[in-house]
Each structure stands twice: as structure tokens, then as C-alpha cells.
Amino acid sequence: MNKQHNIRYKRLITTTFIVVVMSLYFISCKDKNEDLVAFDYNSELVPTMVTDTISTLISDSGITRYKLVADVWMVFDKAKEPYWFFPEGLYLEQFAPDFEIEATIEADTAWYYSTKDMWRLKKNVHVENMKGEQFDSDELFWDKESAKVYSDAYIEIKSGEKEIKGYGFESNQSMTEYRIFRPHDGIFLFSDNPPSDTLESGALIEPDVEPVLSDKVQQVDKNR
Asked: What CATH number has the domain bearing residue 67?
């Protein structure tokens, strides 16, 4: 009898201990839940990753094609239109298959839209190709899918002692074959809005070209 009594007593103590522990656990969980603050996550405004001081090589089809340097790199891969954002600017080198630098690109602000494979470069955009020609504009778009660089903004091109200015620009992505759609001779004051009159074509200009792809520019602006 004493042995059975001891067994029942131990079982009672064990059961009581379990009940007390479980009660404390549920009370603790309840208190924690009451302290939680609801967080409204906006995938368009809150990045999924932020990296400071980045210097990395980027491959394309298994071949190293780019070197990217930036102070801040923000990734919004959960946004409706996934993109990378470089709010403090970036420096980019583009390599040929033999690793010779084809072009260098700098900008104060940049966006990369991953699903479209498109770059948008904004403010103090400076590009230099392997020939040493320099391109300066307030905004450039680089569509990697079509392998084209284009803009509706004002642009200046320096090639040796020659300097070409105008509005509307299109080039291959190595910046070696290009054209300005609305050139001018520098008499007009600088303006973000292109002049309404089309001036005569000069060097490197094709007179029978189609308008700049303004629809693409507007489409990217809407996705900012």
C-alpha cells in the first residue's frame, strides 16, 4: 500500500508541475502578444536588403562583364516591379570578353529594374567609352535586353577636340555607335526641355531616324 501510495503521490506532483509550467507559458505568451506592435510592411518603400560600401563583380551568362562600386545598395525584390536602388550614386565598369574595359559609367543616383533588365541613371551621368569619348547628361536609360542606351534629355559628347550637343540620344551599349536626334550648336541656354525647332543634322547624325523611345522613358518613370 505504501508503495502504491508513493507512486500515486509522485504522479500527482508531476502532473501538478506540468500544469503550472503550461499555465505560466500561456500567460507569458499572452503578455508578449499584448506588447507586439502591428507593422504595415510596404514592399515598395521598405527594402529587403541594404548593403553599405559595395564593390563587386557581376557575371552575365557565366562571364564576368561588370564591376559595380557603390556606397549604398538597396534591394526591393518584393516590390511589384522589383528593382535595385543606389541613392548615393554608383560607378560601373563594363568589360569586353577579353576583360578590356569597354565603358565606364558614373551617376549620382541609379535604379536597376531586374525583370526588364534595364538601368536608369540620373543626375551628373558621365560615360566614357574605350575610345576616350565622353558623354554627359542628366539622365540615361540602358536597356540591356535590346542592348541600347537612350535618353530624351540634354546631352553633350566630347570626342577629341569635337563637342556635340543636343536633345535625344541613342547608342549601342558599348557607346561606340551613337546619334543625337535634335542637335544644336550651343547658342541656346541650357534647359531640361528640348527646343521645339529641329536643327540641321551634323556629324554622327542620321536625318531619317524615328523619334526617341519616349514611351519607354515614361514607363520607367511610372515605376519609380
From this structure: 2.60.450.10
